[in-house]
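[[Local backbone shapes]]
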Amino acid sequence: MGTIGIPVKLIHEAVGHVITVELKGGAAYRGTLYDAEDNFNIAMKDITVTAPDGKQSHLENVYIRGNMLRFIIVPDMLQQAPMFKRIGPNAMKGRGIGSARGRATVLRAQARRGRGGSSNTSSGGASGSRPPIRR
């Protein structure tokens, strides 16, 4: 699989904090998040449940399947989480971030600068041969 997305990282950062969750059915759960999975299954404790009709009740523990969630409200203090810090322009230097470095991109850049020539010229080389790529 690929990398973990920001929403998944955010829900893991929210473990131990009070969150509010609204379900697809309209019920709202507010309590302390104590476990979260990558598929958004969550476990909460000390929950106040507000039903769609406005009635409130209290639950000790609850486990909510991720596909039942409509949205999650996390504390504002998580805006300061390290994962939201901007990465400087030189932090990822040499790691392939930014402009592409594929063979086609290099050949187009060389053609724009007048290097390499086109393959249909009679100035040497077998047809279809490619100029060497300097790294």
